[in-house]
C-alpha cells in the first residue's frame, strides 16, 4: 500500500502556491521498472562524482590547465550538487517528484554534452557546476519517491538497492573512467567520460512515465530567507572542505567556519519563527526533531566521514605509493563494490532478524576490516600481498553495506510522505558533506604524518583512526530505533 501520495497530472498549469490541492486517487506503487529508472539517474549522478578523477591529467594536457583549475573541475560539481539538494527536494515536494526527476534527468543530458564539448577549461568548470546543479534536482526525488510510494518490505528492498547503487556506482565511475580514457573510443579521449551519459540518460527519459507521480498534499510556500541562510552557510563550509586539502591554508579560510556557524544559528531561529507563524520553512523543525532522523543522522555523519576518508586515502596509496593507474586501482577496489552490492541486497532480511543490531554488526565488521587492512599493510609493506588486500576490501564492503542502507531507512522512517523530498535532501546533503569532509580530514592527516614518520606508519595510523569512526557508529547504534 502507498501512504496516500498525491497523484499529479502529466501536464497542465500548477495550482496557486499556497492553496490546498484536492485529494486525488492514490498513486500506483513503485514497480520494478520505475525503481530501475530512478536508480539509473541516481547511479549516473553518483558516478559523475568519481569518473572525472582518472581523466584529470588528460584534461589538463588537452586544455592546457594547471592543478587549481583541475581541482575546480572536481569540486565545482560537488559544490553545486551539495548546495542544491535540500532545495531540490523541497521543489519535488511542491511541484511533483516525477516532474522534477524528469527535469533533472534532461538537464543532466544537456550538461553532460556541454562537458564533453568544452573548448576551454573555464567552459568545462562552468559546465561541471551546471551538471552538479542538475544532479541536485534529480537525486532527492529518488529517495523521496521510494519513501512516498512504498511501505514495509518493498521499501526496505528499494532502499537496499539504493545503497547498493551508491557503492557500485562509486567504484564503477573510477573503473569506467579509466577504461574510456585508455581505449580512446573513437578518438574522444577524456571527452568520452561525459559523452557516455548522453545515450544512457536519453534512453531513460521516455521511461520516466513508469515512475509514480507523487507530491505533498499541500504545496509548501517558498522560504527565501531560509534558502539564503542555508546557501551561505553551506558555501562557506564547502569552501573550507575543498580548500582545506591544499597545503598553506590562509587564516581567512578558517574564518569561514565562524560565518557558517553564524548562518546555522540564524537559520534555526528563522525556521522556528516561520513555523510558529504557520509558514512553510525550508527545513521544517517538526521533521528535523523526529528521533529517528536525529539519531540516524548522528550515526550517518561519522559513517560517511569514515567512508570518504577511506576512499580518498585508498586513492593516495594505490595511485601514489603503489603506482596503480585509475583503471587498475578501480579494479583492485572491485571486491569492495561487489561485496557491498551483494550484502546490501540481503540487508532487509538481516534487519528483519536483528533489528537495530544490524548497524552494530556492520560497524564491528567494518572496524575489524579496517584494523585487518592496517595489519596487512604494516606487515607486508612495501609490497602487501594482493589476495589478503582483496579479501579485506570485501570485508569492509560488507560492513559498509550493513550500516549505510539501514541508516537511510531509519532516517526516513518517520518523515511524512508530503515532506519526503525535504527529508531526503537533508539526508543526502549530510552524507555528501560528511563524505567530502572525510576526504579532507583523512587526506590531510595521511600527508601530514607521512612527512615526520613514514608512509607505512601514516597509512596504519589513519586506518586505526577510521576504525575509531566505526566504534563511534557502534556506540550510537545502541540508541537507534529498529529499522522499518
Automatic annotation (TrEMBL):
One of its GO terms (cellular component) is plasma membrane. It is a multi-pass membrane protein. Residues 1-23 are annotated as: Disordered. CDD domains: MFS_MMR_MDR_like (cd17321). It is found in: Cell membrane. Residues 34-482 form the Major facilitator superfamily (MFS) profile domain. This is MFS transporter. The chain crosses the membrane at residues 68-88, 100-124, 130-149, 161-182, 220-240, 252-270, 297-317, 323-346, 358-381, 387-412, 433-451, 457-476. It comes from Streptomyces qinglanensis. Its main location: membrane. Keywords: Antibiotic resistance, Membrane, Transmembrane, Transmembrane helix. One of its GO terms (biological process) is response to antibiotic. GO terms for molecular function: transmembrane transporter activity.
Amino acid at each position: 500500500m502507498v501512504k496516500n501520495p498525491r497523484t499529479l497530472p502529466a501536464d497542465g498549469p500548477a495550482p496557486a502556491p499556497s492553496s490546498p490541492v484536492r485529494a486525488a486517487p492514490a498513486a500506483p506503487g513503485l514497480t520494478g521498472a520505475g525503481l530501475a529508472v530512478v536508480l539509473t539517474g541516481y547511479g549516473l549522478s553518483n558516478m559523475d562524482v568519481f569518473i572525472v578523477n582518472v581523466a584529470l591529467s588528460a584534461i589538463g594536457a588537452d586544455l592546457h590547465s594547471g592543478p587549481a583549475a583541475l581541482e575546480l573541475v572536481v569540486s565545482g560539481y560537488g559544490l553545486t550538487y551539495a548546495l542544491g539538494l535540500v532545495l531540490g527536494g523541497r521543489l519535488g515536494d511542491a511541484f511533483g517528484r516525477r516532474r522534477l526527476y524528469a527535469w533533472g534527468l534532461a538537464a543532466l543530458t544537456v550538461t553532460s554534452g556541454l562537458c564533453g564539448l568544452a573548448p576551454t577549461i573555464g567552459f568545462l568548470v562552468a559546465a561541471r557546476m551546471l551538471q552538479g546543479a542538475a544532479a541536485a534536482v534529480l537525486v532527492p526525488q529518488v529517495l523521496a519517491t521510494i519513501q512516498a510510494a512504498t511501505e514495509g518490505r518493498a521499501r526496505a528492498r528499494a532502499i537496499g538497492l539504493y545503497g547498493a547503487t551508491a557503492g557500485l556506482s562509486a567504484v564503477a565511475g573510477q573503473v569506467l573512467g579509466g577504461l574510456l580514457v585508455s581505449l580512446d573510443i573513437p578518438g574522444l579521449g577524456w571527452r568520452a567520460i561525459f559523452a557516455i551519459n548522453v545515450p544512457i540518460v536519453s534512453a531513460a527519459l521516455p521511461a520516466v512515465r513508469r515512475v509514480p507521480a507523487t507530491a505533498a498534499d499541500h504545496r509548501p510556500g517558498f522560504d527565501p530567507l531560509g534558502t539564503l541562510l542555508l546557501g551561505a552557510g553551506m558555501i562557506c563550509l564547502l569552501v573550507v572542505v575543498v580548500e582545506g586539502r591544499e597545503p598553506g591554508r590562509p587564516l581567512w579560510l578558517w574564518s569561514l567556519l565562524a560565518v557558517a556557524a553564524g548562518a546555522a544559528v540564524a537559520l534555526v531561529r528563522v525556521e522556528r519563527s516561520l513555523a510558529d507563524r504557520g509558514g512553510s520553512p525550508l527545513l521544517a523543525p517538526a521533521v528535523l526533531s523526529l528521533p529517528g532522523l536525529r539519531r540516524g543522522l548522528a550515526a550517518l555523519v561519522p559513517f560517511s566521514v569514515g567512508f570518504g576518508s577511506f576512499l580518498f586515502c585508498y586513492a593516495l596509496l594505490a595511485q601514489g605509493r603503489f603506482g596503480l593507474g585509475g583503471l587498475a586501482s578501480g579494479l583492485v577496489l572491485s571486491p569492495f563494490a561487489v561485496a557491498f552490492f551483494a550484502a546490501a541486497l540481503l540487508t532487509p532480511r538481516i534487519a528483519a532478524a536483528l533489528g537495530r543490531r544490524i548497524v552494530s554488526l556492520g560497524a564491528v565488521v567494518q572496524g575489524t576490516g579496517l584494523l585487518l587492512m592496517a595489519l596487512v599493510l604494516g606487515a607486508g609493506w612495501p609490497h602487501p600481498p594482493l589476495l589478503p588486500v582483496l579479501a579485506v576490501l570485501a570485508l569492509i564492503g560488507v560492513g559498509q553495506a550493513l550500516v549505510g542502507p539501514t541508516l537511510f531507512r531509519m532516517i526516513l522512517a518517520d518523515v511524512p510522505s508530503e515532506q519526503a523530498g525535504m527529508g531526503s535532501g537533508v539526508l543526502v546533503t549530510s552524507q555528501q558533506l560528511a563524505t567530502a569532509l572525510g576526504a579532507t580530514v583523512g587526506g590531510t592527516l595521511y600527508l601530514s604524518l607521512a612527512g615526520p614518520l613514514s608512509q607505512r606508519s601514516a597509512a596504519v595510523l589513519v586506518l586505526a583512526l577510521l576504525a575509531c569512526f566505526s566504534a563511534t557508529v557502534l556506540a550510537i547504534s545502541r540508541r537507534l530505533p529498529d529499522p522499518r
